[in-house]
Every structure is written in structure tokens, then in C-alpha cells.
Amino acid sequence: MAVYTTLSAAELSALISHYDVGDLISAKGIAEGVSNSNWLIETTSNRYILTMYENRIELSDLPFFLGLLDHLADNGSPVPRTIHDRDGAAFRMIGEKAVALTEFLPGVSIDVPTAQQARAVGAALAGLHDHAADFPGQRPNSMGMAEWQRLFAACGTEGLSRIDPALPELVATELAWLATNWPQDLPRGVIHADLFPDNVLLLGENVSGLIDFYFACTDTIAYDLAVTHAAWSFEKDGTFREDVSRNLIEGYLSQRTLSEAEWQALPVLARGAAIRFIATRAYDWLHTPADALVMRKDPMDFARRLRFYAAQGSTVFAATR
Amino acid sequence: MAVYTTLSAAELSALISHYDVGDLISAKGIAEGVSNSNWLIETTSNRYILTMYENRIELSDLPFFLGLLDHLADNGSPVPRTIHDRDGAAFRMIGEKAVALTEFLPGVSIDVPTAQQARAVGAALAGLHDHAADFPGQRPNSMGMAEWQRLFAACGTEGLSRIDPALPELVATELAWLATNWPQDLPRGVIHADLFPDNVLLLGENVSGLIDFYFACTDTIAYDLAVTHAAWSFEKDGTFREDVSRNLIEGYLSQRTLSEAEWQALPVLARGAAIRFIATRAYDWLHTPADALVMRKDPMDFARRLRFYAAQGSTVFAATR
């Protein structure tokens, strides 16, 4: 969470003048998003989020991300619509950096969800999968199994053992197991792939916004439910929240049916979700100075979730059928 | 500029419930202020800034800062009013940290002012001095000459020379000169003491907000004009902006008269202002890791301004009479 780049008031005003959104009244750099800089912009007509894409976003992916937002919003998902400039462009360049203006959505991110909130999140995720079904864009998952393997290789056995002595063995065993057991031929579609509580805005028990689509891609749809399950169903201390788990899945099922193959695959997909976040967190842990701008996240949080899914995943998901 | 602390949605909602401001709709951590964490809060009734005071603010100073805002706002200065809780308190505690809710003011901070904007800033500063005249609070300047000396001593000759080989000599000579020549017996009152462009909100040519009063104190009033002059009248590359200088002072004079003694003192006060910012920036430069959360500011920017004031200050200020 950071604002990486400074934009002057003159640059902001010049930018805003390319959009039919009135005159600039206020602009505050906000601490949101890890791969870009964001401002909450107020104009004489409305409020908006201005995003400047930093190094971690490929320019060629922007039409997919921004087009997806418009498509989902048109179909009723609570996602921020892209504001197009007077020439119809979804993004503009300031120097070498791309910027986009999107709707401001109300709501706050919560860190300890209620069961009702989890149910609403599950339903919103299924809605997203449903609404994206006829979106023509395609984007490979840049955070798939090949990338997990690459990231762990870059960490090295020595690096992983510095994080936790048990981590190298856990990772090696799990990567081998997942390579053999990863489900094939499940329904594919557009997935969010990173629907952590940070990326959901809630107003009371209702989802008012799904945001930060910068890992969205075309992949196994049920994997997105597994990612969301892994992200939401545990306390800070690692304790499993059965009520959140059950309500998240029941909410999902209220909007989209899971096939028998998807049900069977969920425990495996959840182990994949856990290893995916161990991979990026371990890499960042070893490559980010302890006092840097970006807060490091403990990779072991997801190592504990991985062990949980390996031991109890089948039981937990079966119990929600 | 940072958000140092995370507040959960539950903590935010609990806090907001102590104020008569409606229900929480949105909360965004904003990159504003260097000594505290700030959130832009939207409720069902209005928008507010929530500030959490971090280590650099003394709790015992809060009644002065927050009372001053109310006093200035009551008298017509464009400063954010403090929102008091249902018990009338100007601040509350969350754990060991104090938090306060203040008005949200529109406007953007500009980095390259027009002459007209400089005139408006000068007038707003004089208004502040005028409106604060009957404020009963007192607070010593914690960034006065004794503190400059302490900070430079903490940097050491070796430290200063690492910043620039010429800095130790410049600082030693100037500190000695200022100790002898610092004006006494000038009119005193409440001053902002840090009115950089960052701390002024503008809507077009008008000042819509003066913010960040956390260096405000009781000191020589004309010193505040000198600080503001030093902060506004130079390009990024150090070039003096005569038009900004002249308009800033003319704007000030439109609201408050300078005595003969104040006029005479301005060149000295401006040298003091320059050394004050060299002192804190040099200290921070040597004590902040290059990759830390807070952006370091180059102390040499104000070394150049100091040399300018020493060489041309008398001429520049005399030209504006």
C-alpha cells in the first residue's frame, strides 16, 4: 500500500481536463493497491479513483483489466466502471506511465468478516464469474503453477529455510504433489484471483465493491473460490472459521452451481491457492528490505493454511455440500 | 507522507459512533502529513479527516493545536474545524494513540504557484496572525534556535560533510551570525511555522485551506512570513521567483502592517528560516534509511536559499516595501 509517484496539481488538472468530469476540487494520494499509485479525486461532478500504473503492471494488459471492469459493471457486478476520456480512451499516458480514472465506490474493507458478510462475498464472486462469462478478453494467469515453481527456485532452499526451517521440505513436497494432482478440464473463465478482504468493499452486510482486478485472468473458475476461501476463512492466528467457510460457499452456490468435478477438486485447488501466496510472500520476504515502503507479509500464514487444507480440506468442503 | 497505523473497519466504526456524524460509508488512508496517520472518512452526513497522532506529537500539545483550529475557524480563517465527540472532547484515545476528527476542506496543494496564488497565501497568513491574536493558548517553538543547534550538533561535522563538503562551514558560520543578530522584541503571537505549499489548499486562485498546524507555536510573527517566503519563493532548481516573493508580501500587507523593526528584521528571519529547514532535513537525511517509508528531502535546497538570503535578502525585501 503506497503512493509511489507524485503528481502535481497542474498535472492533475491537465489530466482531468481530458475527461468530461468537471473541474478538480480535491486530490488525495491514498494508501491502496500494492502495484500502483492511487488518488481519491473529487471534481465538481463526482468522486473518482485515479490510478497510475507502476512497474508491476504490463501496459498490454490494461485493455483487459479496464474492459473487464466495464463489462462486469454493465452486467451488474459491483465493480468500478472505467471513465473514458473525451476521445473514448480507457487510459492515458503521463510521460511513460499509464493512468486510468475509475468510479469511486463507497464501502470499507473489513478484516474480520461476519458470516453474513462472507455469504455476500461468496455470492458476489459467483456473480462475477457469471457476469464475465461472455467477456471476450483473455489473459493467461501470470501467477500459475509455472510461476510458483519459478518464485520458489528464486528463493532457494537456503532462503526458504531462513524464513522457516520446515519451509523447504513443505514446499518441495507440495509442489511435486500439486504437479501430479492438479485438476484438468474444469470449467474455465475470467477469475479475480486475488479476492482478499482488502479488495472487497462492504456497506454493512452488503458488498458495495469488488476492486483491484490486476491479477484477473482466464483460469479454472473454481480456483477463484478456493483462493477466496483461503483468503477469508481463517483468523489472524490461523484458526479456521467454519462459519465463514460455510457461508462463503453457500453464498457462492446461491448464484452459481459447482459441478461434481469442481466439488472434488476444491481441496486440491485450495492447496494450490495456499502455495501461490506462500510463493509470492516468500519471494517478497527475501527481496524486500525490512524497512521498505511495502509492508512484508508473513509467508508462514499460508503455510499453516496449506497444512490445514492438506489435512482437513476434503472434510471441510464436503461438509458444505 | 505515510499511513503508519492500520485501523480496522470495526475500530473505525466504533470510533465514529462517538461522534454525531452519521454512519461510516468509506475510509481511505491518505498520504498526508509526516508526523501522523490520516484517513479521509465519508459518513452519511459529510466528509472528514481522521488523524491519528504518532510519536512526533506530544499529547499535551493537542489542546493547543485543536483549540487553535476552532479559534481560527470561528474568526474566519480557512482552517479545518475540530469535530468534538458527543462528550465535547476534541480528541479521543485508541489504545495509546490519540485521534481527532476534523473538517474536510476542498482544494489541492500546488507546487508551482502563480503570482495570484502567492498573493492569496500571503493574505491568508496575515489573516491567521490577525485571527489568532486573541487566542489564549501558548506553546513554545520547539523548532527554535536552541533546537537548530542541537540538531546540527547531533549531525556532527563529519555527518554534515557527508551531505555536502561545504555544509559544516556554512552551518557553523551562520549559527554564530544568527546568535548575534537574531532580532529581539518583535511582535509575538501564534504562528503556523511550516506553511509550505503542501500545507495550503487552493481552489483556483483562492486559498480554501490552511492545514497541518503541528508546528504552530508562539513566536515572532514576522518569522512566519519569512518561513513562508523561504518555502514559496524558489523554483525546484533554486531559482528565485521575484513575482511570487513580491505578491506573497503584498498579499500579507493587504491584511496586516509590518512595523519598521519587522521590515528591518525580515532578511535575518529568512536566514533563520533557511537554517531551521537545513537543520531538520540534515538530521533526517543522516538518520533515515534511504529506502524508508518517509521520503528524505535534500538539505542543500535550503542551503542554497540561505546563501541567497545572505547575499540578496536585504535588497529583495526592501524592493517590496
Automatic annotation (TrEMBL), chains A, B:
Pathway: Amino-acid biosynthesis; L-threonine biosynthesis; L-threonine from L-aspartate: step 4/5
Domain Aminoglycoside phosphotransferase: 27-250
A GO biological-process term: threonine biosynthetic process
Keywords noted in UniProt: Amino-acid biosynthesis, ATP-binding, Kinase, Nucleotide-binding, Threonine biosynthesis, Transferase
Reaction equation(s) it catalyzes: L-homoserine + ATP = O-phospho-L-homoserine + ADP + H(+)
Pfam families, A to Z: APH
Xref: InterPro entries: Aminoglycoside_PTrfase, Homoserine_kinase_II, Kinase-like_dom_sf, Pseudomonas-type_ThrB
CDD domains xref list: HomoserineK_II (cd05153)
Entry keyword Transmembrane helix: no
Entry EC number(s): 2.7.1.39
Top class in the EC scheme: transferase
Superkingdom of this protein's organism: Bacteria
Membrane-spanning residues: none
Presence of keyword Plastid: no
Gene Ontology terms, MF aspect: ATP binding; homoserine kinase activity
Similarity comment: family membership: Belongs to the pseudomonas-type ThrB family.
NCBIfam families reported in the protein's UniProt record: PRK05231.1 (NF003558), thrB_alt (TIGR00938)
PANTHER family the UniProt entry points to: AMINOGLYCOSIDE PHOSPHOTRANSFERASE DOMAIN-CONTAINING PROTEIN, AMINOGLYCOSIDE PHOSPHOTRANSFERASE DOMAIN-CONTAINING PROTEIN-RELATED
Protein name in UniProt: Homoserine kinase
Annotated organism of origin: Croceibacterium xixiisoli
